C-alpha cells in the first residue's frame, strides 16, 4: 500500500464533519472522492495536504507517517502537488515563472528549471507558452498550467480539488480523459475531489462515495454502477429506478421482494442480493434496476410471469441514439421508471416493463 489513512475524524464545534474514514491506495492509483456539496470531500483533501488538523487519525505516504496525532509533518514537507478549484496561477508571473515557482524555492539551477518548464509544457500539451501571462490563456489552458506547476517538483501524491469545475461540459470531458492518460503515463498517485459522477467515472480506478463525512462505498466505477451499497449510492450514482417495498425471503443471493402493497397491490419481484446490510433487513428497502437493464414490452408477456409491471408512457426522447422513455407504474400510476425503448412511444400508451432479476438489486 502506498497511501494509508486510518480512522480519520474531524468536527467543527458539535458538528462531526468526517467520521471514521479509512482508505488505502496503491502507487499510481487514481481515486476520486465523490459526494454532494458539504459532505466533507475538501476537508479530507486538506487534512492529507496538512492544511487542516484532524481530531483523530493516522496518515502514511510511502514509508513515512505524516500524521499520527503526535507527529505532524508540515504541509510544505509532505511532498504533495495540489491543484485547487480556482487554479490560483499568479497573475503577475508568466507561465514559465508560475511553473518554476516551486523549483526556485528548492534552489534548482536556471538550466535545470528551463529544461523542466519546457518538458512540463510538452507534457500538458502547451509547448511554447512560456512567455504568456495567465490572462492570455483560456480556462482549460490555465488549468493545465496549474497542473504543470503542481507536477514540477515531482510530488509523491497529487491532490486535485475540483480543478475542472469552472470549465464547460465539453472541455471538462476532454480534459478529464486527457488527465487520466497523463496520470497513468506518469504513474502518479492521485486523489481527485469532485461532485460530478461522470468525471469520477471517467478518471478513477476507484471511487469513494461520501455522505455527511461517512464512506458509503469504495469501489471501482463498474462495481459502483452494478453493485450498489445502499439507496443513497443508488440515487447519487444514478440514473437508477428505485421501487419501495421489503425483502420477504432470501436463498443465497436470490431474494423475493414485496413491492409496497399500498402502491402495487400484491406484486412480488425477484432480485439479486450483493449487500449484507440489505440481506439482513426486513425493514423498508428498495428494489433497484438501471434504466439500461429494463426491457420494454409492447404486449403483456405470458412467458415472463415474474418481474413484470404494467405502466403508462409519459414521455419519450431521443438521447445518444436511443429512445429514453419515462413510464409511470404503480396503482396510481405515479412512480416514474426510466427505460430505453426500441422506438418512440406515444404518451398514454400502455407498456409492460420487465426487470431481469439478475440485473435487479435490493438495497437498504
Ligand atoms: N472552518 C470551518 N468551520 C466550520 N465548518 C466548516 C469549516 N470548514 C468546512 N466546514 C463545514 O464542513 C462541511 C464539509 O465541508 P467541505 O468543504 O469538506 O465539503 P465538500 O464536500 O468539499 O463540499 P463542496 O462540494 O461544496 O466543496 C460543510 O458543511 C462545511 O460547511
Strand and helix map with partners:
Layout: E1 3-12, E2 15-25, E3 30-34, H1 41-49, E4 56-61, E5 64-67, E6 80-83, H2 95-105, H3 110-123, H4 139-151, E7 157-161, H5 169-186, E8 189-194, H6 197-203, E9 206-211, E10 214-219, H7 221-226, H8 231-236, E11 241-251, E12 254-259, H9 261-264, E13 268-272, H10 276-280, E14 284-289, E15 295-297, E16 308-319, E17 322-329, E18 335-341, E19 350-354, E20 360-363
Parallel strand pairs: 3-8, 3-9, 6-7, 7-8
Antiparallel strand pairs: 1-2, 1-4, 4-5, 9-10, 11-12, 11-14, 12-13, 14-20, 15-19, 16-17, 16-19, 17-18
The structure holds adenosine-5'-triphosphate.
What can you see in these coordinates?
- The protein has two domains: 224 residues, P-loop containing nucleotide triphosphate hydrolases (Rossmann fold, 3-Layer(aba) Sandwich); 125 residues, Nucleic acid-binding proteins (OB fold (Dihydrolipoamide Acetyltransferase, E2P), Beta Barrel), CATH 2.40.50.
- A hairpin with a 2-residue loop joins strand 9 and strand 10.
- Helix content is 26%, strand content 36%.
- The mean pLDDT is 90.
- Helix 2 packs across helix 3, helix 2 runs parallel beside helix 4 and helix 3 crosses helix 4.
- By secondary structure, the protein is an alpha+beta fold.
- The protein is built from ten helices and 20 strands.
- Bound molecules: adenosine-5'-triphosphate.
- The site of adenosine-5'-triphosphate has 11 residues, from helix 1.
User: Tally the helices: what do you get?
Assistant: 10
The sequence of SSEs as H and E is EEEHEEEHHHEHEHEEHHEEHEHEEEEEEE
Strand percentage lies at: 35-45%
CATH topology of the largest domain: Rossmann fold
Whole-number count of domains: 2
Label the overall shape: elongated
CATH superfamily of the largest domain: P-loop containing nucleotide triphosphate hydrolases
Radius of gyration based on Cα positions: 25 Å
What ligands are attached or bound here? adenosine-5'-triphosphate
Mean pLDDT across residues? 90
Amino acid at each position: 500500500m502506498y497511501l494509508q489513512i486510518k480512522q480519520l475524524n474531524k468536527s467543527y464545534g458539535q458538528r462531526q464533519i468526517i467520521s471514521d474514514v479509512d482508505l488505502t491506495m496503491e502507487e499510481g492509483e487514481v481515486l476520486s472522492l465523490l459526494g454532494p456539496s458539504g459532505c466533507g470531500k475538501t476537508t479530507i483533501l486538506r487534512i492529507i495536504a496538512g492544511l487542516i488538523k484532524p481530531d483523530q487519525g493516522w496518515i502514511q505516504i510511502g514509508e513515512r507517517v505524516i500524521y499520527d496525532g503526535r507527529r505532524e509533518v508540515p504541509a510544505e514537507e509532505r511532498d504533495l502537488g495540489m491543484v485547487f478549484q480556482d487554479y490560483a496561477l499568479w497573475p503577475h508571473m508568466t507561465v514559465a515563472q508560475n511553473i518554476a515557482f516551486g523549483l526556485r524555492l528548492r534552489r534548482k539551477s536556471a538550466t535545470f528549471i528551463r529544461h523542466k518548464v519546457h518538458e512540463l509544457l510538452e507534457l500538458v500539451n502547451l509547448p511554447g507558452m512560456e512567455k504568456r501571462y495567465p490572462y492570455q490563456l483560456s480556462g482549460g489552458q490555465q488549468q493545465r498550467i496549474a497542473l504543470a506547476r503542481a507536477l514540477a517538483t515531482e510530488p509523491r501524491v497529487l491532490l486535485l480539488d475540483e480543478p475542472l469545475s469552472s470549465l464547460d461540459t465539453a472541455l471538462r470531458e476532454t480534459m478529464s480523459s486527457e488527465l487520466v492518460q497523463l496520470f497513468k503515463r506518469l504513474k502518479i498517485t492521485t486523489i481527485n475531489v469532485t461532485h460530478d459522477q461522470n468525471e469520477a467515472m471517467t478518471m478513477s480506478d476507484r471511487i469513494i462515495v461520501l455522505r455527511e463525512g461517512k464512506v458509503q462505498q469504495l469501489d471501482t466505477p463498474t462495481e459502483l454502477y452494478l453493485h450498489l451499497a445502499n439507496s443513497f449510492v443508488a440515487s447519487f450514482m444514478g440514473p437508477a429506478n428505485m421501487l419501495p417495498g421489503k425483502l420477504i425471503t432470501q436463498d443465497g443471493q436470490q431474494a423475493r421482494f414485496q413491492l409496497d402493497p399500498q402502491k402495487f397491490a400484491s406484486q412480488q419481484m425477484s432480485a439479486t442480493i450483493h449487500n449484507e446490510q440489505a440481506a439482513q433487513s426486513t425493514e423498508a428497502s428498495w428494489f433497484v434496476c438501471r434504466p439500461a437493464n429494463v426491457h420494454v414490452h409492447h404486449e403483456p408477456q405470458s412467458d415472463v410471469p415474474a418481474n413484470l409491471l404494467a405502466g403508462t408512457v409519459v414521455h419519450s426522447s431521443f438521447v445518444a441514439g436511443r429512445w429514453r422513455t419515462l413510464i409511470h407504474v404503480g396503482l396510481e400510476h405515479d412512480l416514474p421508471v426510466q427505460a430505453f425503448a426500441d422506438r418512440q412511444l406515444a404518451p398514454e400508451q400502455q407498456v409492460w416493463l420487465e426487470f431481469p432479476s439478475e440485473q435487479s438489486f435490493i438495497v437498504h
